[in-house]
Amino acid sequence: MTITATQRYAYTDLPRLMGLMTGDEKHGPAATSTMDALWVLYDRVLRVAPDRVDDPERDRFLLSKGHGPMAYYTVLAAKGFVPESWLPGFGSYASPLGHHPDRVLVPGAEIGSGSLGHGLPIGVGTALGLRAQGLDEPRVWVLIGDAELDEGSNHEAIAFAGPAGLERLHTVVVDNSSASHARPGGIAARFEAAGWSAATVDGRDHEALYAAFTAPHPGRPRVVVAQVEPKSA
After folding, report:
1. Fewest CB atoms less than 10 Å from the CB: which of 117, 143, 181, 208?
2. How many CA atoms does the CB half-sphere of 130 hold within 13 Å?
């Protein structure tokens, strides 16, 4: 089954759409670091659509890096999940677009984001649940930030998913040099040690992202480390 999001805007429209969201708690670097990975996923990879948000055969995208959701809201608006008219109200009392996405309020959002480190464990559980239901086509995608790898919950999820052979599970780590702890050999090496298929790419290069997102990895979960400019730059 093919599920395709509605094409409403082009990538070049995203800066204007994001600019509609104002306020003192925009977490700009957290948002802009994810823009390109989110766009490639929603534009070319994810099998999702505004009119199929409850389709059991849809892919599941889980935004764990939820404290900077403006790029996420921008891409959802560009693809028709939420109206553009919602964007200027970002973070206001009556707006459904909060400083963390709420799955009850935001069409297309699979989880409510909260504490760092919770998204990947939920992704593991989601992949296991789909397997138990015999749903072999849907893929689970989780987007995390490199700083979330400071949380032990993610390492438990990484250690479990590899030996469990969760090949429908995909993780995108947006690396903007925010992690507090060193990663000898790089972030990808941590996942590879647990049996994951891994790639590290330029997080602004759409073709490199697409190739890494769609590379085959039979029998293993997949991680793509998307390197972007340091948060402090």
Report:
1. 181
2. 22
Mention every residue, 6+ apart, whose C-beta is less than 8 A from residue 71. 14, 18, 31, 32, 34, 35, 38
Kindly report, residue by residue over 1-56, the tens digit of the pLDDT.
445 555 579 999 999 999 999 865 556 667 789 999 999 999 999 999 999 999 99
Cβ proximity of 65 and 102 under 8 Å: no
Q: pLDDT tens for residues 129-162? A: 999 999 999 999 999 999 999 989 999 999 999 9
pTM, two decimals, is 0.93
- For 110, the token pair is 């699979």
Domain ranges of the chain: 11-227
Candidates 157, 230, 170; CA nearest to 199 is 170
